Amino acid sequence: MTRLAPKATDLSRDLLETGIEATMLAIEANVVFAYRSYRLCGFRPMGRGEIHKMVSEKPSAFAASAMAAGFTAMTGQRPDQVVAAAIHPLRAETNRNVRRLGAGEDVDKS
């Protein structure tokens, strides 16, 4: 069995990690969609500001994603690193939403 050069091993690891991050982004986005669908259909209580939050959070998340990808590309990084940089701000938002919606924190206390 031949051993891969350290650089090839690092690239393989980075590609795998980027793929896992992209998969987690897709899973979290679907979970957030499901939580919000249950609330819109009346199966779970929904706070007054949740509909506004659904729309208003997207421009800032996608702008942060585009900026991160742009800066990474301008520094001459590999394409997988550009994708990883673009995914990071989106994952932060979807992860925050999964935690918040799963805990029921969007429900008004009044």
What does this structure look like?
The structure is a single chain. With 110 residues, this protein is mainly α. It has 3 helices and no strands. Helix 1 packs parallel to helix 3 and helix 2 (50-74) runs antiparallel to helix 3 (79-103). It is elongated, with a radius of gyration of 18 Å. The N and C termini lie far apart (66 Å). The model has no long low-confidence stretch (mean pLDDT 89).
Please state the CA-atom Rg, rounded to the nearest Å: 18 Å
Q: Terminal Cα separation, in Å? A: 66 Å
Structural class: mainly alpha
Which ranges are low-confidence, i.e. pLDDT below 50, for 5 or more consecutive residues? none
What is the overall silhouette?
A: elongated
Record field, number of beta strands: 0
**Percentage beta strand:** under 5%
Work out the helix count.
Answer: 3
| Helical proportion, percent range | over 70%
Key structural traits:
110 residues; mainly alpha; 3 helices; elongated
Provide the fold topology.
Elements: H1 6-40, H2 50-74, H3 79-103
Helix pairs in contact: 1-3, 2-3
How would you concisely characterize the structure shown here?
The protein is mainly alpha-helical.
